């Protein structure tokens, strides 16, 4: 069972990353990101830029000094996402979110969005199926 | 004083007329479309509507081809795109030397498209965003969502310009060959255009647009360059799907672009000022 269930998952993940890489290449390369690594971070949405050429999810993440740091995650464009079920209010300020991302190579707080997860378990992908064919 | 100014103005108008007449042998004067011209459109294959590259159909491809070692595909070797092995461009000795010189340089991580400069033809036709085809008498217009660009393919019988200014998309004319629209484009500036090999200002790009079923279009692209290529180079064909319910959206790349390529081609991202975006 484990083997059979992990195979399709792998296939889906491979397909997704292939389509994401093809897409993101249109505007820029992956060179600024460490694509060999994925990290997870939890915080509160500060702002969702539903803008071109990329959306940006800004996440306030508690730091060790009792304050918060704002992290930025680059996502697909509104043109792409808008045809795949996203809207400018899919993420709202105050939403709790765990973001999986590929970190910046230069150590800045941020990276490339891979997926998001809400406290209720809902997963937010940016490479979903077209909702308006 | 007044008289002198008028004389100068007259003189410059005269010069302009003479100039247009000197190139007048092939001058083409478009005429207003007639009712018959509009009716004739209905007999052509219907390309109108919004199209996007079909996933896995060759759209949005290109890192291997666009960024690969330009020398690797030369001399009969294979340049590999995402779709598999393809015959690579066969370069003339002079352009093979150029390609090797390019390959010996440190490879830039990024090009000017990260700074919002659109890629030229043919790269602009392979973006992961839709394109809308419009058909009017003597003209096929392609509205490209990526970077909010537009191409005009004149099908009114005008010739290609003899000495076009080099541009991103060049000057295009087209003709109908059966059910296919065959476009020829010349006049290319040296800008990022997703090609893996050096090209000359003599490059010509041929595109063959054809419906393969009701809502599927194939685009075959062939590059001819008598200075750079020893034979025409055919790119992997692209397959587009029509989305009747879609409209073209705005894409203002400069709106909130945090990516950049520095002058040495190093990639970076500006993460400061999270509240700076306009919406």
Brief rundown of the structure:
The complex is a heterodimer of chains A (133) and B (279). With 133 residues, chain A is α+β, with helices and mostly antiparallel strands.
Share in β-strands of chain A: 25-35%
**What is the ordering of alpha helices and beta strands of chain A?**
HEEEHEEE
End-to-end C-alpha gap of chain A = 34 Å
Overall mean confidence score, pLDDT of chain A: 82
Please count the beta strands of chain A (DSSP E, at least 2 residues each). Answer: 6
CATH class of chain A equals Mainly Beta
3D shape of chain B: globular
How can the largest sheet of chain A be summarized? 5 strands, mixed, barrel
Number of helices of chain A: 2
Low-confidence spans of chain A: pLDDT under 50, at least 5 residues?
1-25
The CATH class of chain B: Mainly Beta
**Which consecutive residue ranges of chain B, at least 5 long each, have pLDDT under 50?**
1-24, 56-85
Q: Give the name of the CATH architecture of chain B.
A: Beta Barrel
């Amino acid at each position: 069972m484990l083997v059979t269930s992990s195979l399709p998952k792998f296939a889906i993940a491979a397909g997704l990353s292939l389509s994401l890489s093809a897409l993101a290449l249109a505007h820029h390369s992956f060179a600024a990101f460490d694509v060999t690594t994925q990290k997870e971070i939890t915080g509160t949405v500060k702002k969702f830029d539903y803008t071109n050429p990329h959306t940006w999810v800004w996440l306030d993440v508690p730091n060790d000094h009792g304050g918060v740091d704002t992290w930025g995650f680059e996502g697909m464009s509104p043109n792409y996402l808008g045809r795949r079920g996203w809207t400018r209010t899919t993420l709202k300020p105050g939403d709790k979110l765990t973001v999986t991302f590929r970190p910046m190579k230069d150590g800045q707080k941020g990276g490339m969005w891979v997926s998001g997860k809400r406290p209720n378990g809902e997963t937010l992908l940016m490479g979903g199926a077209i909702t308006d064919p | 004083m007044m008289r002198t100014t008028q004389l100068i103005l007259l003189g410059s108008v005269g010069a302009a007329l003479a100039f247009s007449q000197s190139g007048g042998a092939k001058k083409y004067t478009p005429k207003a479309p007639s009712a018959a011209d509009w009716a004739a459109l209905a007999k052509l294959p219907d390309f109108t509507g919004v199209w996007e590259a079909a996933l896995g159909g060759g759209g949005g491809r290109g890192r291997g081809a666009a960024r690969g070692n330009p020398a690797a595909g030369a001399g009969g070797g294979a340049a590999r795109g995402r779709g598999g092995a393809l015959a690579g461009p066969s370069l003339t000795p002079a352009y093979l030397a150029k390609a090797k010189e390019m390959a010996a340089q440190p490879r830039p991580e990024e090009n000017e498209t990260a700074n919002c400069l659109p890629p030229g033809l043919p790269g602009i036709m392979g973006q992961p965003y839709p394109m809308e085809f419009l058909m009017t008498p003597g003209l096929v217009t392609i509205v490209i969502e990526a970077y909010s660009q537009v191409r005009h393919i004149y099908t009114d019988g005008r010739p290609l310009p003899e000495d076009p200014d080099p541009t991103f998309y060049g000057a295009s004319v087209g003709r109908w060959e059966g059910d296919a629209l065959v476009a020829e484009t010349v006049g290319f500036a040296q800008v990022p255009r997703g090609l893996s090999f050096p090209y000359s200002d003599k490059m010509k790009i041929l595109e063959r647009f054809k419906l393969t079923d009701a809502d599927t279009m194939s685009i075959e692209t062939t590059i001819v360059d008598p200075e750079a290529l020893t034979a025409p180079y055919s790119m992997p064909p692209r397959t587009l799907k029509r989305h009747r319910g879609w409209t073209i959206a705005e894409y203002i790349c400069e709106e909130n672009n945090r990516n950049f390529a520095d002058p040495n081609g190093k990639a970076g991202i500006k993460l400061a000022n999270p509240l700076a975006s306009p919406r």
